[in-house]
Amino acid sequence: MGGDAEHPELQIVDIAAVARVAHAAGALVAVDNTTATPLGQKPLALGADLSVCSDSKSMCGHSDLLLGHVAVVDAGLLEAIDRQRTLTGGIPGPMEAWLAVRSLATLPLRLERSSANALRLAEFLAGRKEVSGVLYPGLRSHTGHSVAAAQMTHFGAVVGFTLGSKEAAEAFLERAKLVTQATSFGGVSTTAERRGRWGMTILRRVSFA
After folding, report:
1. Do 158 and 204 touch, CB atoms closer than 8 A?
2. Domain with CATH 3.90.1150.10 in the chain
3. Is 139 in contact with 145 (CB distance < 8 Å)?
4. Does the CA dihedral 176-182-186-188 come out positive or negative?
5. At the N or C end, where does the chain have fewer CB atoms within 10 A?
6. CA–CA dist 50, 131 (Å, integer)
């Protein structure tokens, strides 16, 4: 999925096609797989050289960890990454490791339910006259839907939608009873945020509860 942390547009990138072009030019391909998670999308199987993921979000899913991982296939690349990690001290403590193992046990259920909820919500929003645009790759109307359907098993839990004005977006956030205003996503609560400079409200998480 494309975009950045400040403006997650949920654009879909054909990883296999990008990998072919990049490798032909002698370049490596790294994919940020945070939103999809390794269960929802497998970049290495599609030709990417590195798959990186913020495990603080949907992977661990309880808003109680600062953690991430890098996955590779090439042994030489793994050795270089492992050496850099060792020299810089980026190694989780025992408690963090235990919390991650605890959390991963529920990832399949959380991802399946949150993705299903996100799709239902996206479909609902698409039918609202107050909403001028909905960003979710699970929607057939999304420009990247066909690619997403081919390379993903789950479309993720992040939905973006556009309201008519700053005031409308702020009114939504103030009146929503089941949505918490927060920046991050991937916890057990539904969260949303209006990025003022972009003029967009991003629904960060659809609760699986």
Report:
1. yes
2. 108-203
3. yes
4. negative
5. C
6. 37
Q: How far is it, in rounded angstroms, from Cα 53 to Cα 39?
A: 12
Q: Tell me which amino acid residue 107 is.
A: L
pLDDT in tens, 161-205: 998 888 898 899 999 999 988 877 888 888 998 865 444 455 554
Contact call for residues 153 and 171 (beta carbons, < 8 A): no
**Can you identify the CATH homologous superfamily of domain 108-203?**
Aspartate Aminotransferase, domain 1 (3.90.1150.10)
For CATH 3.40.640.10, the residue range(s) in the chain are 15-104
Is CATH 3.40.640.10 correct for 15-104? yes
* DSSP secondary structure letter of residue 58: T
Regions in the chain scoring below 50 on pLDDT = 1-7, 197-200, 205-209
Q: CA 128, 130, 136 angle in degrees (round to 5)?
A: 60
Comparing CA positions, the residue from 71, 85, 36 lying closest to residue 57 is 36
Give the span between the Cα atoms of 74 and 7, in whole angstroms. Answer: 32
> Where are the strands (E) in 90-154, listed by range?
131-135
Q: What is the rounded distance in angstroms from the CA atom of residue 150 to the CA atom of residue 146?
A: 6
The torsion angles phi and psi of 115, rounded to 5 degrees, stand at -70, -40
Dihedral, 148, 154, 158, 163 alpha carbons, nearest 10 = 60
